[in-house]
Amino acid sequence: MKTMNWSILVGLATVLAAPPALAQDALKIGLTGALTGPVAGTYAPAVEGLRLYIDRLNKAGGVNGRQIELLLQDDASEPSRAAANAKRFLTQDGVVMLLNASLSSTYAPTIAEAKRAGVPLLFTAAACPPEVFPPADPNLFCTTAFGTEYDSRAALNFIKETAGTEVKIGFQAMAIPVSRGEIDYAENLAKGMGMTSVAKEITPPPAPDYSPFASNISSAGAEWVWSWAPWGSQIKTFEALRRLGWEGNYLAWAHLEAESELERVKDPGFYVLGANALFAEDLPVMQEITDAAQAAGAEYPANQMTEGWIAGMVIEAALASAEDPGSADSVREAMSGLSVDTKGLRGGSLEWTEENHFRTQQHYKVYRWNPESEGIETVSGWTTFDVE
Amino acid sequence: MQLAVNILVLAAIYALIACGYVLIYRVSRVLNLAHGELMMLGAYMLVATASAFSMSPVMAVVIAALMSLAVGGMVYLFLMRRMTGEMVLAAVLTTVALGILIRGAVILIWSAQQYHPRAMLGWGNPVITLPGDARISLYAALLIMATVVVYGGLFLFLRFGRWGMRMRAAGQDPLLAAQRGINLHAVFALAWGLSTFTGALAGILIALDSGLDSTMVMIGLKAFPAALVGGLDSLAGALLGALIIAAAEVGVIRFIDPLLADVVPFIVLIAMLVIRPWGLFGTREELDRV
């Protein structure tokens, strides 16, 4: 009798101590990202934003009553570690969606692993690979703000509207393929628009001193500079130019750090062009992100989490509209016809079709520091490009 | 003139970092491959002290530099000391592991975001206009001055200082030095402390000039060819090596192709290894030991 009582107690304890049934039904999503390493500053804040979004979603009941389990693995931008992470997510954890938030060198192994397992791969905070543009690879998707070639078209259009085509323009890139490719494209485009390209500086990642590169741009007489590179390279080249007494205008891509850097630099000749709205606009969704970051005691500023928050919105929409969110095939099918309201974080909804896994429209805004109002101002409202 | 200023600034950065490689190698024959990480750690210490001593910026810088000196000494006492008597390769691999540990710790403590210690301290970075309309930032000028002071101080210290002479003796013949009563562990700890201090000084000044993130570790690696070109056991060599590497790099950026900036230090290094493997001021005897 005593033995039976103990058995009942042990059985009861086991049942009580067991994780809730919901945890077993949780939808697993695996993210391999550059959470450490030299470029972590570009990716880690976005990943934190995504984590906060998923936490908030789970607290609100998850997607159709099912919790989402976000599995994070650091790849430190190393392809071999990204491949190992992807393999683990796909073979051991049984994820229904794989995410990549890392350097482009990690793309090939993660694409191969996701394809082999038949699990959709979403690039978030990482540069969108060419395969997501029309005609898109059925398995690859991207939410990241910047889009190659469209960014330079928007940038040069802005310079043309502001200064005309009779302008001497310089270019700045970092010595990584994606940055160089974009700046080569921009240089040809500028020439086609009648602008005079006077300098193209490709800086190493990183340079101990950016003055030698800035000297070339300055002495070439550039009136405008278009820079499309990791943030550190963009801002350090600009600051080196100013130290040399250069008085031209500098247009840079609005990475995660852009907002706090505009406030730090306080230079009206320093413009940033981007596809994400800055927190200076104080939209309700931005307050939501700020509240979530404060409540969680976030490591990074809320205004660097937009990319991750948008990825969270897209993941929620994809899982909610999938017939069977526990099936990767079903999730992929849902992703191939998705429309997500970004609540003003972007210039419009993020829409994917069978053929287009980047977005059907790409919107851009330009901001700069206004010394008179002592705040960030919008220089150019949303400009829209159809993605074909 | 601006070209000369650019060369001088870059040379000062490389020289200040390279002297850390030389100090440790000269005394203990260990190639410290964690030097870039220790340099970065020094700069992050400024971030910590800038928050703690925001009312006294100078104090924050001094304390960060002194903490680096202490960290260098502790790295020897708690880690590298255990490598004494082991193969040099084991010691070198230990420094690799140390570097990985520091990189991880920095991300854990300070995250991956960019810091601007100068703004934290409330300092500006005025531009100084030189003859010939060349311009240099205040912190770049301070970097050049710091390099002159550090190399001058080290020259005097090693030539005339009691502990400097002990360091030279330990480097030349550790067994004989120990038999003459020199405390080798104290000498090695001092070398590690001074090396980390000079590296951190470079890191702090670079961070004050242009900000700080975890990519700084790669700058430490870029200074390595300067030490090798000059000869790993020679401070004068490190100074000249830094000047050669900087002149080649800035010259290539200005006159050939900026894209080559990253590879030119290593091209110079390969050329030196082919012509004179022991470096400009290194000795054949040192190479034989390696």
From TrEMBL, chain A:
- Asked if Transport is a keyword of the record, the answer is yes
Question: Which residue windows are coiled coil?
Answer: none
Query: Per UniProt, which keywords does this protein have?
Result: Amino-acid transport, Signal, Transport
What range does the record give for the signal peptide?
Answer: 1-23
Gene Ontology BP terms:
amino acid transport
Q: What range(s) does the Leucine-binding protein domain occupy?
A: 27-370
**A Pfam family it matches:** Peripla_BP_6
Q: Which InterPro entries match?
A: BCAA_transport (IPR051010), Leu-bd (IPR028081), Leu_Ile_Val-bd (IPR000709), Peripla_BP_I (IPR028082)
The text of the family note is: Belongs to the leucine-binding protein family.
Protein name, as recorded: ABC transporter substrate-binding protein
Upper lineage: Bacteria, Pseudomonadati, Pseudomonadota, Alphaproteobacteria, Hyphomicrobiales
TrEMBL record, chain B:
How does the UniProt record describe the way this protein sits in the membrane?
Multi-pass membrane protein
Q: Where in the cell is it found?
A: Cell membrane
Q: Which Pfam families match?
A: BPD_transp_2
Per the annotation, which location comes first and is thus the protein's main one?
membrane
Taxonomy, superkingdom: Bacteria
Q: Which InterPro entries match?
A: ABC_transp_permease, BCAA_transport_permease
Mark the transmembrane ranges. 6-24, 36-53, 59-79, 88-112, 136-161, 182-206, 226-247, 259-279
What is any one GO biological process for this UniProt entry? amino acid transport
Q: Which GO terms describe its molecular function?
A: transmembrane transporter activity
Q: Which GO terms describe its cellular component?
A: plasma membrane
Keywords, A to Z?
Amino-acid transport, Cell membrane, Membrane, Transmembrane, Transmembrane helix, Transport
Provide the family line.
Belongs to the binding-protein-dependent transport system permease family. LivHM subfamily.
PANTHER family in alphabetical order: ABC TRANSPORTER PERMEASE PROTEIN, BRANCHED-CHAIN AMINO ACID TRANSPORT SYSTEM PERMEASE PROTEIN LIVH
Protein name from the UniProt record: Branched-chain amino acid ABC transporter permease
- According to its UniProt entry, this protein's organism is Chelativorans petroleitrophicus
